[in-house]
């Protein structure tokens, strides 16, 4: 049995080999993404080619820095380390870096963000704002030291002197550039005196222009109250800022031309056209007013003005009739209410109440006399009965019938138990009394 290893021991041994093998500490792989389903934090999927497959893991912090979204079937190049997961005994690659195979990560990110914002409708033409024809103050979001601001100042001064230019010095590439661009767009929108806003920078690589592809900048342009002209890179360079801006200019000079009238001659021509349009409009209004006046002057109402108030007279008669009917109806209801109140008062007349109470008093007197007579007769009968009962208890009557009453020391004796030999007792009889001495006491057995 000593030859056999446990599964845990073997797995730990293999894990130790994987962890210490220098060839597995940093592995470069090319494969196709498979079984990918985006999760809220860490990402778990497979990398495969036509003959093999390996499990892959991207921790949340690494995934957020990739710069593009993983998609099912995408071919990618990754750098990572291979490890064994002990509970299942499976091995996988922990990805530390990744980029699309054959196409730059920025290009993939550009297309993915463009697709997302297109589906949200941010690039639709119906959201584009018209540019002002005669701007008095132009805002510019660009670098202070670049050629962009100089080209804009030169073009505006040449084409339309007197227009004020307000520069928002901005970092246009590198870390923090996107946040600064979006912040300055928001600052410009806080002013009430700006007519249009130009954002831009000179040419460069996709990395140099990338700040204008960041989502924060695109949304800041979309939410801008001010119309925005985008002038980023050369004519062949295209950024997401160009798609969402109200107008795109190939160069800073072209942006300045879009923001100002063409020439003084064109401006004069425009004013002359406006003057002609105004004169024509006034003439048309006068013609319409004359026709309206002529039509009104020939109308029946001007020839027979009394018709104007015929309807009002009829309306007044109707209102008078309604007022009379309403008053009569209200008066009738008031009379009915008054009669009800009078009838109620009559019911509450004190004389009637007094009479009712007097009748009740008379009835109660009659009832009292009747009950007093009954009570008197009852008491007389009771007294007679009690008197007769007392007479029945009279001792004189008892002795008159031949009985004697025995007394001992003034106490009536009714039991032999109260007597003993030699007691002196008195016998009360009908016609006198006898004093005797007890000779013998015999108790009757019951």
UniProtKB/TrEMBL annotation:
Pfam families: Exonuc_VII_L (PF02601), tRNA_anti_2 (PF13742)
Domain OB-fold nucleic acid binding: 5-97
Keyword Heme set for record: no
GO MF entry, a single one: nucleic acid binding
A biological-process GO annotation: DNA catabolic process
Catalytically driven reaction(s): Exonucleolytic cleavage in either 5'- to 3'- or 3'- to 5'-direction to yield nucleoside 5'-phosphates
Stretches assigned to the Exonuclease VII large subunit C-terminal domain: 122-436
Compartment(s) of residence: Cytoplasm
Keywords for the protein's UniProt record, in alphabetical order: Cytoplasm, Exonuclease, Hydrolase, Nuclease
GO cellular component: cytoplasm; exodeoxyribonuclease VII complex
Subunit note: Heterooligomer composed of large and small subunits.
Family: Belongs to the XseA family.
Cross-referenced HAMAP family: Exonuc_7_L (MF_00378)
Record's protein name: Exodeoxyribonuclease 7 large subunit
